[in-house]
Amino acid sequence: MPIGRKVWAIAEGYIPGSSHGPEPALTSHEAACLLNAGDRDAHIEIMLYFSDRDPVGPYRVVVPARRTYHLRFNDLQEPESVPRDTPYSSVITSDEPIVVQHTRLDSRQAENALLSTIAYSEA
Amino acid sequence: MPIGRKVWAIAEGYIPGSSHGPEPALTSHEAACLLNAGDRDAHIEIMLYFSDRDPVGPYRVVVPARRTYHLRFNDLQEPESVPRDTPYSSVITSDEPIVVQHTRLDSRQAENALLSTIAYSEA
Amino acid sequence: MPIGRKVWAIAEGYIPGSSHGPEPALTSHEAACLLNAGDRDAHIEIMLYFSDRDPVGPYRVVVPARRTYHLRFNDLQEPESVPRDTPYSSVITSDEPIVVQHTRLDSRQAENALLSTIAYSEA
Amino acid sequence: MPIGRKVWAIAEGYIPGSSHGPEPALTSHEAACLLNAGDRDAHIEIMLYFSDRDPVGPYRVVVPARRTYHLRFNDLQEPESVPRDTPYSSVITSDEPIVVQHTRLDSRQAENALLSTIAYSEA
Fold it and tell me: Pfam families per the record (chains A, B, C, D) (predicted)?
């Protein structure tokens, strides 16, 4: 069953860098949980926005039909890795309806989430 | 008074397994708080989506009229228990309007929530 | 400027009781932040829903024009106090548009929030 | 690509003051992440609402086209700084569509968020 929207935004984003703070800060990472409950593969593009330079992207991800994908921003590599210690926002567009939830994970405790919120979706 | 929607989705889901991390990780569990404020019982079906296999379900729950139900994903058994250490998403459909909130509980402190967010709802 | 909706729901609710867990559990409390940005006082009614008995309420609150009110569920007294160690949900209705955010506070640290999410609103 | 809404509200707000609690309470701060993904600069006005006095503002911020801005309420100065130990709410209006996410940061750990939720938006 298709459910969701094709345009999403997460205004908050921040990946701590290795030069800041104690070790726990290093182990958390940003994630976007992407659900494609429909019958067709979803081709997804992610643009990253910054405070002091032009947007970067698109990053491309395919979420197959009837599958979920927990995307970690830390793992994005093309066209470039996500800078640490830098506030950013993301806009996520898909050719099929998807549902997006923003989550920050703490890898010290087997993927426990520190926070989570539904992303903003556009009708 | 009926309030809510009939189709909901929670993109983020993860139940830590016994093989990962220290003991606190074992005591948290995923929950979906389901409110049926209407005058008719709500018959609810939950489908679970994974990253590498077909969806599982439906799991079936009845929330009586004018009642709330704090469903723990850890407790789901039919058609199969929810795998640990595995990202999943859920789609929740109801024959009556309901309101769904996603919560992760920490049972060490008498049901204190670690995070909570309204689920995505479809008009 | 009026902003908001007249019907809101918070599916998740739980106030730890004195018989459970260590002291920190006792110091957190549930809150609903109610914003009335309009030019007329908002007369608000709150109904509480439980898993095993009929709803309780209405609890009545007035939020004056152009004011905010951080309501603590722990402080509700009429028609009865909110039971501890008991899952509940709330439906909040207002005669004027308001905005509602669900927050759990930790009083040990000067009102630091442990979690927060926008409530569900009905058009 | 423009995405978002022009009117937003965050019902929950609280900045701990120096006279309350242990040091960790002093290091957290409120933030609103503001994304302007469009091609025109967004001129933003913020009004703060209190429980016992008239609203204060507008505070003015410009978020350039295709930029994000992580606004800290602690840093607002004109027309006056945000009082500590005081519950408040905020209404954020923009002449261009933006996306707003409410976040509370913990500066002890390189900007780790303690909580985050999408703000309420008005169509």
Answer: ASRT
ipTM above 0.85, yes or no: yes
Give me the sign of the Cα torsion angle A91, A96, A97, A98.
Answer: negative
Chains that touch C (3 or more CB pairs under 8 A): B, D
Min Cα distance D122 → chain C (Å) is: 7
Give the DSSP H or E segment for B73.
none
> What would the two tokens of residue B95 be?
């024959």
Beta bridge partner(s), residue B46: B59, B92
Return the number of other C-beta atoms located less than 10 Å from residue B41's C-beta.
15
- Taking an 8 Å cut-off on Cβ atoms, the answer to whether A87 and D110 are in contact is no
**pLDDT per residue as tens digits for the range B7-20:** 999 998 888 775 44
pLDDT in tens, B42-91: 999 999 999 999 999 999 999 999 999 999 998 999 999 999 889 999 99
HEC assignment per residue over chain D: CCCCEEEEEECCCCCCCCCCCCHHHHHEEEEEEEEECCCCCEEEEEEEEECCCCCEEEEEEEECCCEEEEEEHHHCCCCCCCCCCCCEEEEEEEEEEEEEEEEEEEHHHCCEEEEEEECEEEC
Pairing of strands B5-10, C28-36: unpaired
Question: What pTM was estimated for this model as a whole?
Answer: 0.90
Q: Minimal Cα–Cα distance from C53 to chain D, Å?
A: 31
Q: Name the 3-class secondary structure at C115.
A: strand
Does residue A55 sit in helix, strand or coil?
coil
B112: contact with A, CB 8 A cutoff: no
Nearest to C3 by CA among B92, B36, D91: D91
Q: Is C102's Cβ below 8 Å from some Cβ in B?
A: yes
Handedness of CA A21, A25, A26, A29 (dihedral sign): negative
Kindly report the nearest CA distance between residue C30 and chain B, in angstroms: 10
Contact criterion met (CB < 8 Å) for C11 and B99:
yes
Q: Where are the strands (E) in A37-87, listed by range?
A: 42-50, 56-63, 67-72
Contact D34 A11 (CB under 8 A): yes
Cα separation of D101 and A116, whole Å? 12
